[in-house]
Amino acid sequence: MTSTPDNAATADAASSASPDELAHFNRLAKQWWDSDGPFASLHAINPLRMAFIETHSDAGDSRVLDVGCGGGILAEALARSGAAVTALDLAEDVVEVARDHAPDHLDINYRVADITRFAPEHAGAFDVVTCMEMLEHVDDPARIIEALAEAVHPGGHVFLSTLNRNAKSWLLGIVAAEYLLNMVPRGTHDHRQFIRPGELARMGRAAGLKPIASTGIVYNPLTRAFSLNDLDLDVNYLMAFQKDS
User: Fold this and answer.
1) Which of 65, 87, 179, 239 could form an S-S bond across to 69 if both were Cys, CB 3.0 to 4.6 Å?
2) Are 216 and 228 in contact (CB under 8 A)?
3) What's the rounded mean pLDDT across residues 114-133?
4) Would you state the pLDDT for residue 13?
């Protein structure tokens, strides 16, 4: 495993994430790999994210960019599948946790870097780009998607996940998940920043990305298990894109 700091990234933080958002995740950094802790749901859904990625791309043996990597849950899974992974995040404490956790044999290059600065310097360098559970935390998701599209080569794939914006997602994604079931740390989400699937698809098309698949991540409170459901994008959902050739 290698890791490269980006000393200019801190000055760019405001371009992709607010200081309050970064502080929120930095405070929780040391709990990232506690599978029963505040990020338990990320651990639980990670196999589903990987299944969706592997269904719609050849992520293994590919050059993969994971943006908003957090503590490295997805980055490590991608690397274990055989990918050479570059993983970016602006929360410095969280990136440090990711670096410390990853075994040396995994090919992961963790960087504290802003994708809007990183992408122009690495245009078309990646086969697959992922950005999971991040777009609902930024003020300008369209700008982020443009940068993701710039980083992937023509014909390559981009995978996004976020939360739908409707009454059901407010009830389940915030009230239930944050305050009743304690599945997500309180204050993690702002419903106003959730993104409808149609909006996400339009932002992708505007950036030269063609939507090719989507599915919902559905939680069953009786079994306490997550599953993929192509017909239910009401709350959490994934969307796959392919860059125009």
Assistant:
1) 87
2) yes
3) 97
4) 39
| pTM assigned to the model | 0.89
Vertex 149 angle, CA 55 and 139, to 5°: 105
Percent of the chain residues topping a pLDDT of 90: 70
d(C-alpha 223, C-alpha 88), whole Å:
34
Least confident of 29-43, 57-71, 87-101, 138-152: 29-43
Give the mean pLDDT of 159-174: 89
Sheet containing 225-229: order of strands: 2-3, 108-112, 84-89, 63-67, 126-132, 152-163, 236-243, 209-220, 225-229
Q: What is the mean pLDDT of residues 120-129?
A: 98
What's the pLDDT score for residue 214?
A: 98
Q: Band the pLDDT of 190: cuts 50, 70, 90.
A: confident
Backbone CA torsion sign across 45, 47, 52, 53: positive
Residue 23's CB is within 10 A of a number of other CB atoms, namely 11
Q: Following DSSP, what letter does each residue of the chain receive, concatenated?
A: -EE---TTTGGGHHHHS-HHHHHHHHHTGGGTT-TTSTTHHHHHHHHHHHHHHHHHS--TTSEEEEES-TTSHHHHHHHHTT-EEEEEES-HHHHHHHHHHS-TTS-EEEEE--HHHHHHHTTT-EEEEEEES-GGGSS-HHHHHHHHHHHEEEEEEEEEEEE--SHHHHIIIIIIIIIIS--S-TT---GGG---HHHHHHHHHHTTEEEEEEEEEEEETTTTEEEEETT--SSEEEEEEEE--
Please state the φ and ψ torsions of residue 49, each to the nearest 5 degrees.
-60, -45
